[in-house]
Amino acid sequence: MRFVQASKERTIEAIIYPLLLLLILWCVFLIDRLYYLDLYKFGVKPQTIEGLKGIFFMPFIHSQKDYSHIINNSVPIFILLSTLIYFYREIAIYVVLFIWLGSGFILWYMAENPFVYHIGISGIIYGLFGFLLLSGFFTKYLPLQAISLFVAFVYGSMIWGIFPTEERISWEGHLAGFLIGLLLAVAFRKKGPRPPKYRYEIEQEMGIEPPDFEGEWKEKQRILIAQQEELKKSREKEQKMLDLLKENESQDAQNNDADNNESKSSPTIEIKYHYVRKNNKKRK
User: Does residue 109 contact residue 34 with C-beta atoms inside 8 Å?
Assistant: First the structure.
C-alpha cells in the first residue's frame, strides 16, 4: 500500500513540476513577445561582467520573433525533466541546479564571441540528456537502462547539436550542458534507484555466509558416483566368481564323463573258485 502511494506521489510530482516550469517559460515568452521587452539582454554574454547574470536567467528566455524556439524546447524539457523527477526523485533538484549553473558558467567562459547573447533552456535539455543517457548503465537497473536506451533512440540526433553546424545555434551551450550531465552521471552513480537485492546478497553484506548449495550438490554427486563404482566392482567380482564356479563344474562334469567311459570300455573280470568236494561217505 505504501509503495503504491509513493508511486502515485512520484508520478504527480513528475507531471506537476515540469508543467509549472513550462508555464513560467511560456509566460515570460508571451510577455516578451507582446511588450517587446528585449529580454534577450538577460542572456549569457560570454566573458563579460554584464553577461554573468545570464547564467541565472538564460533558461527562461527564448526568441521573441517566432514560436519555433520555445516549442522545440518545450517537449524535450517536459519529457526529460519528468523522467528525472520520477526515477531520481531524491537528487533531481541537485542535478537540475548543477546543470543550470554549471552549463551557464562553462558557456560564459568558453564561448569566444563577446558580442552575442545566448538564450534558451536547451543547455539544460542537453544536460538532462547526457545524465539520463549515462546514469542508467551505472545503476545496472533494467528499467533505468531501458530509459537510457529510450532517450538515446528518441533524442539521439541531439548529439549533433554539440557541434558548430549552424551559426545561430548555441552549440557551446549544448556542449557545456552535455558535459555537465555526463559528469553528474558519474558523480551520482551510486544514487538513484537500485535493483532489488536477493537474500544471499543481503546475507553477504551482513557477514552471514550463505549455504553452499553447489558444493553440497557436487558432494552428493561424488558420493553417488563412488557408490555406483563400488557396486559395479562388487558385481564384477561376483560375476568372476560365478564364472569360475561354472568353469569348475564343467571340468568336474567332463572328468566324470571320462571315468564313466573308461569303466564301460574295460572288460568285466569275474573270479571263479575251483574246489573239490569232500566225500564224507566211505566206500564200502
Answer: no
